[in-house]
Here is the input.
Amino acid sequence: MGRKRHHNEDSLLCNNELALFAVADGMGGHLGGERASRMAVEILEREIEKARSEGLLVAPRGLAAGEPHPIRTLLRRAVVEADRNIYEAAMQNPALAGMGTTLTVLLFVGNQLHMGHVGDSRAYLYRDGRARQLTEDHSWIQEQVRAGLISAEEAKESRFRNIITRSVGFEPSVEPDLSVMGVQTGDCFVVCSDGLSNYMSADELGQVLTGHFYRDVANVFIDLANDRGGDDNITCLVVYAGNEKPGAKTAVRTARKVTRQAAK
Here is the structure.
């Protein structure tokens, strides 16, 4: 919960068996935000597990030109299903009106990473000693930066940086950003809520990963965010991709998760 909040509206998903990882940062007050983020990760996990049980969670051998990628399709379907359920729950209960959540998802299938993203939680890749942001915030302030109306430095200080322009559950439909990339042995991925990313650049994130064991860095990140103000809930997943044995296909081997309350 950081140092300022009295409740935590974040939720996370860390399922090594499915190679599925996600962070959701809820909005809509104590009842709504917490409910929305929890629903998002639960429905996501349920839909991906269902796809696996039906034999759909496999990398395709080859795709014809213009043919939709089946993993991309099922990931989009899972996010849309979460959006529909959260929106309908809010319509049925006035106490939950206006609830929604960010959702940033990593799904590993074979040697590929499939990402789904809505809102301003973030995913980063650390490779060859450098970190880079993989997602683009759906926020009002990012739109101003993209339009050239303010600088990236000004955006960091803006009091409007928490206004998001796309979320899961706030409207009856949502279109997630979807992407796919190859995974290399030794890649490390960080998924976090803005309670961390508001306090840390990609370069600094890379420096922390360079200077610490991966098993420790989630705690280091959260301590840094709290030391710098801790204005928001802080959730962080660190996922490392490695080989089980020489010559084996790349697989997600470990995932560290930390979400905790800081000492007041």
